[in-house]
Amino acid sequence: MNIILLEEREIHGGRVVLDDRRAVHIQKVLRATVGDRVRVGLVNGPMGSGVLTAVVKGRPTRVELVVELSEHPAHQPELDIILALPRPIMLRRILGQVAALGIGTLFIIQANRVEKSFWDSSLLEQHEYLEHLRHGLEQAVDTRLPQVQIFKRFKPFAEDFLPRIKDDYRFRILAHPYGTSTLAGYLGPGPGRILLAVGPEGGWVDFEVDRFEAQGFCCCSMGERILKVDTAVVALHARVSAIREMLCR
């Protein structure tokens, strides 16, 4: 936890009292004492610091901070991700990773090779997935929560929703092991948002590839190796970010 995230409703007159895992972290991991300053941030808002004014050890541990928030959050990331719903244990990892890496929106969708039982997971409840996104922000020292939108049917997403948002993106990438294009060959210099679609274990089926390509997606491969979904998300994000950074120098 490299930043203590706060909700606006928790701050009263510039002060906040914590008695949950954040208080335990401040007291036991940071070993902060009265007068020490810790990094804090407001979810979806500015960052700054908090001065510890009180520590009460016990169950629960309680700390009080006087906070000053004056640093503007980072700009919205230029990358959004479409993710075919993976198994819950993998989705848990991905949520934290994409929040730490930085994305704007995560679209979680159905695909032919997604097991229907995955949709029964409590991880798709807002209070569940937000907790994992917060963990990612705490790691990366960021306050901007990625938005999450969930679509339980593929055709309405691909044929109704996607046409409405596609023009918001300059680059539309369909990650596919058998894609004929490369990321380096497709991405170009200059500004522009990016929409990246990552399929399920086993990849996209031909019908899905056709629907994405009909909306202007370029079918790209990272090479011969087929990666697990959580590995692929991180690798693709890193590759896209590196290529864009190099091209925009």
In short:
The chain has 249 residues and is an alpha/beta fold. The chain is 33% helix and 25% strand.
Strand order of the largest sheet: 8-7-6-10-9-11
Report the span from N to C terminus.
Answer: 32 Å
Structural class: alpha/beta
Radius of gyration: 20 Å
Overall shape: elongated
The profile of the biggest β sheet is: 6 strands, parallel
Number of helices: 7
Percent helix: 25-40%
Number of strands: 11
The fraction of residues assigned to DSSP E strands is: 15-25%
Characterise this structure.
The chain has seven helices and eleven strands. With 249 residues, it is α/β, with parallel strands linked by helices. The protein has a six-stranded parallel β-sheet with strand order 8-7-6-10-9-11, sandwiched between helices. Strands 1-3-4-5-2 form a five-stranded mixed β-sheet. Helix 2 packs parallel to helix 7 (229-247). It is elongated.
Entry keywords:
33% helix; 249 residues; 7 helices; six-stranded parallel β-sheet; 25% strand; alpha/beta
Which secondary structure elements does this structure contain, and how are they paired or packed?
Layout: E1 4-6, E2 15-18, H1 21-29, E3 37-42, E4 47-56, E5 62-71, E6 79-84, H2 88-101, E7 105-109, H3 126-140, E8 147-151, H4 154-165, E9 171-175, H5 183-186, E10 194-198, H6 206-214, E11 218-220, H7 229-247
Parallel strand pairs: 1-3, 6-7, 6-10, 7-8, 9-10, 9-11
Antiparallel strand pairs: 2-5, 3-4, 4-5
Helix pairs in contact: 2-3, 2-7
